[in-house]
Design a protein that fits this description.
Aspartate Aminotransferase, domain 2; globular; Aspartate Aminotransferase, domain 1; 4-stranded antiparallel sheet; alpha/beta; binds pyridoxal-5'-phosphate; about 350 residues; 7-stranded mixed sheet
């Protein structure tokens, strides 16, 4: 048994997958009478089942983002990727999952859903990873999975690849590196480069943020082919809709436009950060590598409700540890950012 197989739940490793009509015939035919679909077309082809393996999307991901085809799988958003990884690796009722705090809440929620204990390790006051704290927690608690989000949500901070490699080396379970916001980071070094050396590392990407497809639901798993094979075997056969796959192909074919938007968001981020620092009620601004900024203010709830009254919604994160007074603001279009700045000036004056 390989190291990875030994980490997987036996019932999943040994299960016989559903074999769909699309799995059993992959050539081209004139007449498809194998999947009990409707013959009636005319609605973007959705009378036909989608490709279970998202092959065209994965070829495009290789071409545009350099993610090797045999190392990717597509989930119905990162949500499904996280859930499937937990189902594959965590023994319900006994394994534990380690997450830094504050971070994306979905790891903890999906751990609860899978009856895995959640072990929080606080970030340092600088909002950097507490590498030594994580290493000793790993030695003590032996988590089956460790989640690291870089750039982190809600801080926008990128962790060093050396720190991530060190934690992943120490962790004898799976280390998941969530790179949902990596497109917005300058000079980003992806943990994908670590997988060949340490096959227990898996990386998550998503088309929900920079690629503008939050409503289409495509999360990308980048991992050793052995993990990819089990993920594809265990997931729902038609987990990503035909409309979603086509939207992904269109977005990835227009990468230049997306990269231009990313440049605009970086400019907006820089401008907004400088603007926010000048406001008297803003106590701190975290330098962000994502498409949002986390700031600390005197009265987070007051600011949120004031902005809501102006038709602008931001996210109150002040109940998270280390984030007293924290609110998270997404970088919008130039026009949206201008409206936000105008409203904030009004807040000072009231
Ligand atoms: C938004 C976000 C995602 C994306 O989730 P999807 O299910 O792919 O839309 C993943 N991870 C983090 C940390 C996020 O903030």
């Amino acid at each position: 048994m390989t190291e990875l197989e030994a980490l997987m739940n036996r019932h999943i490793r040994e299960m016989v997958p559903y074999s769909s009509a699309r799995d059993e015939f992959s050539g081209h035919a004139d007449v498809y009478l194998d999947a009990n679909e409707s013959w009636r077309g005319g609605n973007d082809g959705v009378n036909r089942y989608p490709d279970p393996l998202c092959r065209a999307v994965r070829r495009k991901l290789e071409e545009v983002l350099g993610l090797p085809y045999d190392m990717t799988a597509i989930g119905n958003g990162s949500d499904e990727v996280i859930d499937m990884l937990m189902r594959i690796f965590c023994v319900p009722g006994s394994d534990c999952v380690m997450v830094e705090r504050p971070t994306y809440g979905e790891y903890g929620v999906l751990a609860s859903l899978n009856n895995a204990r959640v072990l929080d390790v606080p970030l340092l006051p600088t909002l950097q990873l507490d590498v030594e704290g994580m290493v000793s927690a790993i030695r003590e608690q032996k988590p089956k999975m460790v989640f690291i989000c870089s750039p982190n949500n809600p801080t926008g901070i990128v962790y060093s690849l050396e720190d991530i490699a060190r934690i992943a080396e120490e962790n004898k379970g799976i280390t998941v590196v969530d790179e949902a916001y990596c497109d917005f980071a300058e000079g980003f070094r992806s943990a994908c480069a670590l997988i060949r050396e340490n096959r227990r590392i898996v990386v998550m990407r998503t088309l929900s943020k920079a690629w503008g497809l939050a409503g289409a639901r495509l999360g990308v798993l980048v991992a050793d082919p052995e993990v990819i094979a089990v993920f594809n075997k265990a997931k729902a056969p038609y987990n990503v809709s035909r409309l979603g796959q086509e939207a992904a192909l269109r977005a990835l074919s227009d990468a230049d436009a997306v990269r231009e938007d990313i440049e605009g968001i970086r400019r907006g981020r820089k401008h907004l950060a400088a603007f926010l620092l000048l406001l008297p009620f803003v106590r701190w601004v975290i330098p962000s590598e994502a498409n949002f900024i986390l700031i600390g203010v005197d009265s987070p709830a007051g600011l949120c409700s004031y902005l809501a009254s102006k038709g602008i919604v931001i996210r109150n994160r002040s109940s998270e540890p280390l984030l007293e007074g924290g609110v998270r603001i997404t970088i919008g279009s130039a026009e949206e950012n201008r409206k936000l700045e105008e409203a904030l000036v009004g807040y000072v004056e009231t």
